[in-house]
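SUBJECT: protein chain
CONTENTS: sequence, structure tokens:
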Amino acid sequence: MPDTGEQAWRFWVVPGNPADGFESPAMEMAAKTWTGEWWKFGGGGNTWNGITYDPEFDQLLVGTGNGSPWNQKIRSPQGGDNLFLCSIVALDADTGDYKWHYQTVPGETWDYNSNMDIVLADLKLSGRNIKALMHAPKNGFFYILNRENGELLSAEKISKTTWASHVDLKTGRPVEIAGARYEDGSEEVWPSPFGAHSWHAMSYNPNTGLVYIPTIKQSAVFTDGGVDIGGFESPHRSVAVGVAFGTADSLPDAGSSTLQAWDPIKHEQVWEQPLPPQWNPGTMTTKGNLVFEGRADGRFVAYHAETGEILWSQELGLGISAPPITYSVDGKQYVSLLVGWGGAGLISGSLSAQHGWKYKAHPRRLVTFALDGSYRLPEFLPPAFATPRDVEGFVIDEALAAEGLGIYSSRCFLCHGGGVVSGGMAPDLRESVIPMSHEAFKSVVVDGALLGNGMPRFRDLKDDGLIALHHYIRKCARDLNSCQ
């Protein structure tokens, strides 16, 4: 309760161990869609972004996350839909009781979560006036549901999507393409785990009838070759990433991004503007027929909402991750934007590092605009890039470097970037002097000397693991191509 902090209700997204009793009737229903001992891994389904209150039906519409581990062969080895992963779940706002759900990716295995924003709108579809919700999750489809009962009204592709051919409107289920679950070894699948649309907010303008979606166009190669499916251990025994498959981001088409205007009634793209790769923030649209969006290259842009024409832009000196907001004070309208580089796209390493937003090199700012604004922005620092260092005479042991890659992939890449190329979230280890000294490296990685800076400690990592990491980091510092 807001006045006391007392918990009013709680809804479990995935069921626990059936032997302990079911948390609710909804979890008893959900447990029938799981196999194996999923509760040992947690199951997944974390809700971390897409929650919308619907006052007309007094309900919460909750977008849920992907499975954990990502690879369904481990968490639910005999298959199953795995409710309520990758779903929109409607809950009674007063009691938290389950009302209805729609699952975008049954039994998901690609990190195609549905945590993306949920937009409410009154739409006219096939002659019917619908209290609708619109949702564009990672999986490449744009969904419209009747939010009164969860009925699927449409599901159309907004970007290249190869895991499913279409969504059957009669059953509400995607029609998967053979091989997409990398059951025959490895498979290139569109979109990548970054999604066609990630958490960066789309926006809807009821005057134009268009939805404005920041879109990522990238594939990934999925494989569980080399993964001990039967012997996989729970990843949360220590701080680690437990996806249980490998991916590759060094494909010929490394990824591109666009801002697209999508017509949800006609199911078609109206206009599209290219964006810098690859991770651009959310949008805001106004009654004045504008669409605002920051960009990864540090520009803040206003587009014509009907045509996509660029009407205005401003260089802000640092990559942007936050969406803009607008508000009025004493009848005067302002547009504000947090300028700073961050977000999960930074794990993509060189794709993010190409912009030159180096760790701690550029100041963060809150920038506010008004039509008669006259303030002059301060001088910006130029882009900065890492300068890899080497250790003279150091001989790389390929076997140790391979072992180091495994450790790096499970412990380090989320912050320090793929291929040991920092996208700006944390120091670039190729130029850091800390990994060059075993004692200094151990004090930071194992003993937690930089906990205050946000660097976690890995107490279970032994000296041989640190040595393997050192060999892998030096290999990447000498030749980035050789360590992918």
